[in-house]
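Q: What does the predicted 3D structure of Fatty acid ABC transporter ATP-binding/permease protein look like?
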Amino acid sequence: MALPESPPVDRPTTRRAPLRARMRPRSIVPGRQRWEIDLLRGRPAAARLTETTLLEAPGIEEVHASPVTGRVLLRHDRTVSPRAATRLLRQAVSRTLAALLTTTPRKDRPETPPSAAVPRQDAESTGRRLPSILLAGGAVAAAVVGGPFLLTLLSRPLLMLGVTTAATAGVVRGAWRRSNRAKQSSDEATARRHPLRRIIGPHKRKFALAAVLSGLSQLGEMALFALSPSIVLLVAKGGSSTLARYGVAGVGSQLGLLVGAAGTACLAMAAFGYGATVAWRQLAQTIEDDWRTRTYEHVQRVAPADLENERISRVNTVLSEDISQISTFVASNMNDVVQMVTSLGLLIPAFLLLAPQIAWVAFAPVPLVAWLSFRFHERAVASHAASDERRSRLNGRITENLHAHTTIKSAVTEQHEIVRITELNRECSEANRVSDRSAAVPPQILRLAGGSALVGTVLLGGTAVLRGTLSTAAFGPLIEMPGIAMLKLSRLGSTTDQYQRTVTALDRVERLHRLPLEPVSGGRPLPGRQVKGEIELRNVTFAYPGRPPALSDTSLAIPPGRTTGIVGTSGAGKTTVAKLLMRFHHPDQGRVLLDGADVRTLALPDLRRAIGYVTQEPFLFDATIAENIRYGTFDATDEQLVTAARTAGADAFIDSLPDGYQTRVGERGAALSGGQKQRIALARTILRDPPVIILDEATSAVDNETEAIIQQALQVFGTDRTMVVIAHRLSTVQKADQIYVMGPGGLVAEQGTHEELVNRGGTYTTLWQLQAGRPALA
């Protein structure tokens, strides 16, 4: 059946042909989609932006967008429906198209990725508000020019202040709404609390303490700025009539009072500022510890089948970078927000109380400053994203080359890699220069706006003082106040960006929390001493997501206390049998039985303690050999440890090491060979002494002589134990009591002992002849 073509996302541009984002589906199956998108063809930056946008969405596991063919491969987990994945792709393409419309690179320059450009509809709405914003900010220019219009404005100061406040609120609200739309979670049907409330959670008291200290620190700063001009006026005028009316006579006494008050304000600002910094950081650390602990505990209890659908790098990013992002926002940006609110909350009433006729001009540039802060920050995000992307490519290539050092040497491609790194380094430097130029513009424009507010305040305030409608005592403390507001508002853009990043990080963290957990309680107890080890797969069918069945109506019977071998071609479902028995996965149909009981009815911890599972690629921790062998049996004695190592054939190479059992194995056992790692993992399982042992290619990396020694030791150790040996190398299962030969789909092709199967002339015979190099028994 032909897939319907998606209608194009079409946006007109000025003086050029419209850009089209026609989307044609190539294939859509559960967990995977392939699309062809015209917009991406010939646009590497657009392809990278589409990949980046999609990978930020919850549930998206892998994205590959080709700028050569325009095709996109999208993989997502089972919690995301095909319809939802298509919607996420459309949103990503729309964002890419909007970014292309807001950036017009010259033809003689390579395309730069507009990674975080504003969607066009938001830019247009901002553009529609721009005249009113500029009109409010232009009140400063009108004050300088003077004339009848100035007199009209002066007659309506409260009206103009209201217009300024409304314009500022409109800018902030619009930016905030864009922020929420840009980072909206795909889980739209779930009504949840505000992100900040979810972050703070049970730490409301600590949050209140930090907020109060921040407010008091800002109050001290404002008092210091207000007292400084008053001291200058006192010295210039030779006294203050206002202080004299309150009983402070004499210039010296008045000066001492104001200087003392200024010193007190300075000390209060420093003391409360220190307390606020410590309080915010302690709150941030508490939140980080709480979220990381709870998230890690949840991940440890997630069912392996669900965790396999998550990329390990993504889970690691959530546990490290995303939770740290939440902590960083609390530690720094929340303090900025509280100080900004405190500044405006005190400045506006102060102006209305002391000098209402000039309040509007002092705050006229505020909406313009807010708009510029958001606008320039949005542009800076695009340049920073381009710089980060190029730096990431450079770092990734360097890391890859270091891991591939031997391959590069053997291929004699050192110069080739040097040229590639040099080119990537040049691109990274160019992107950094563009980013630096973008970052240098906003501060100067914001300084200009703050200076305009100061000039307007001095002009109108000075005129009012000369006319006698405003006292110098009231006007002096207000001169520096607008600068404080401008400074705080200039951080709006970066604060909003950090809020966006934090909400996105929180969504990814909470998505991990939504993964289903394994049952830690319930089920029938299974004492290890009572386990006989009789295993049966009864008409089991199982398929991994998006793949053909690994097992199709498979039935196996593994007798207790015996050794059973399972062999077959790759993809025949051999390892799947072990995973179903361990309850890493559950069969789609049929039953997996242990001692006649369905494993799903047994207590999960008891089941896994009863089975020792050694995989082909065992994992070793960055610890000593002794600690790795003891893992899971922490109270084992040294004698038991050495006995387990001897049974696994590991004692000889361990004793040859300078530090013996105290030798550190390095990250993931990097200091050991593959065979040595397998023997340590086997010793770990032997030390646990489980009634059932599954060896999944557990000796594939050892030589034949070592394997023979291990098999001889396992024959003694495996007496009266159920052992399941999964192998490609038939010599590994040659002495098994029975052998299953599995074919495609997990179907049992043959069954019998080694001698029976070799003489039968079937699949096993062919494999034995190929591996042993002889047509008869040894």
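A (community wiki): The structure tokens above were generated from the sequence. The CA atoms of residues 464 and 470 lie 5 Å apart. The two ends are 56 Å apart (CA to CA).
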